[in-house]
Design brief:
binds phosphoric acid mono(formamide)ester; binds N-acetyl-L-norvaline; globular; 13 helices; alpha/beta; 315 residues; 2 domains; Rossmann fold; five-stranded parallel beta sheet
Length: 315
């Protein structure tokens, strides 16, 4: 693998998941791969899991890391071409990405959708600029349109916990006080369908995902109907794609509750975290023995480690 921006960079998905499960059993066997090599983690937005699991994955591979928090430590970056840089942005991505790429062997970037301009977010301006100007391989730690490291961790988790070959997976929209990106939902939908599991997406009208992400998933506007017979319930809030970045509903009736979980096939509950308790999901569900939120977070180490291993092998 050269860079990892989305599922399009994955040649063989079953092999990738198998590799991750093997690495999880023996996390230290590839330590030689990272020797005398280093990775820079660049954050334009906050993170707990991605930041720490990426450093842990690098540690397991013997790879050194440096972290740059652009907001508090770096110069504000300009991404537009040909502009007169007389505002608050002190450095252009052309120089910044080239410099960082000359110091490190791998560069990982987090840059959330700004939810202001759909084209800017969906053209992946930040990731594409790094790809263009940075000579080192790039890893997406959540971009304008996707969060593929999370989706890989989710797929590892489902593979570990499924009891049938093709489980019924339900992605449910849930309420949230702030407008959130579509990235997690987009990637989850794409990866679950690529893994050929049965996916139903349920959300209020107006929250349809972009066509390439929705794919051939069943869309069910009645959440309780969607939950019937589900093996996995994956909750996430996202803002509208059609009415870009807007909150169209905050209906508390969409929260995942113990009562709704009773409609499922004793489903496991999933969320990428961070989660707002008793807004997105009731305490009784996230604290139940059917909750997989902590195993998902643990698997973030192995999703990053698997991607890093494949990139380091090609350096
Ligand atoms: C972010 C999002 O929804 O994209 C990050 C999730 C991993 N969530 C929040 O900002 C709460
Ligand atoms: N799930 C996830 O990416 O969490 P962080 O935002 O804390 O990294």
């Amino acid at each position: 693998m050269k860079s990892f921006l989305s599922i399009n960079d994955v040649e063989n998905l079953p092999a990738l998941v198998k590799d991750a499960l093997e690495i999880k059993k023996n996390p230290h066997v590839y330590k030689v791969l990272g020797r005398n090599r280093s990775m820079c983690l660049i954050f334009l937005n906050p993170s707990l899991r991605t930041r720490l699991s990426s450093q842990k994955a690098a540690f397991n591979l013997g790879l050194q890391t440096a972290v740059l928090d652009v907001g508090s430590q770096g110069w504000q970056l300009e991404f537009a071409d040909g502009v007169k840089m007389d505002s608050d942005k002190a450095e252009h991505i052309k120089e910044a990405a080239a410099v960082i790429g000359s110091y490190f062997d791998v560069v990982a970037i987090r840059a959330f959708a700004k939810l202001e301009n759909r084209d800017e977010d969906y053209n992946e301006q930040v990731m594409e600029s790094f790809k263009k100007y940075c000579p080192a391989p790039i890893i997406n730690m959540e971009s304008g349109t996707g969060h593929p490291l999370q989706a890989l961790a989710d797929l590892i988790t489902i593979n570990e916990h499924k009891t049938v070959d093709k489980p019924k997976v339900v992605l449910t929209w849930a309420p949230h006080p702030k407008a959130l990106p579509q990235a997690v939902a987009n990637s989850f939908s794409r990866w679950i369908q690529a893994a050929e599991f049965d996916l139903t997406i349920t959300h209020p009208k107006g929250y349809e995902l972009v066509e390439e992400a929705a794919g051939n998933a069943d869309v069910e506007y009645n959440q309780e109907k969607a939950f019937e017979g589900a093996d996995f319930i994956y909750a996430k809030n996202w803002s509208s794609y059609a009415h870009y970045g807007q909150i169209l509903s905050n209906d508390p009736d969409w929260m995942v509750t113990e009562n709704k979980m009773k409609l499922t096939n004793n489903a496991r509950f999933m969320h990428c975290l961070p989660v707002r308790r008793n807004v997105v999901v009731e305490d009784a569900v996230i604290d139940s023995e059917n909750s997989l939120v902590l195993p998902q977070a643990t698997n973030r180490i192995y999703s990053m480690q698997t991607i890093l291993k494949q990139i380091l092998e090609k350096l």
